[in-house]
Write a structure and sequence with these properties.
48 residues; 2 helices
Length: 48
């Protein structure tokens, strides 16, 4: 499958032009809302 459904921390860091450690914080914040709604999230990845 060539279409990616998830962005990894490296992708987020590249898109936002930030460090990987800051990208981890961004991913955690973006995963918090779906987690609170009962969805399963994958650490270090977000839905594209």
């Amino acid at each position: 499958m060539t279409d990616k459904n998830f962005m990894r921390v490296e992708d987020v860091a590249g898109e936002l032009d930030v460090s990987k450690s800051y990208a981890y914080k961004v991913v955690q914040r973006l995963n918090k809302e779906p987690e609170d709604m009962g969805y399963i999230t994958i650490s270090g990845r977000i839905n594209r």
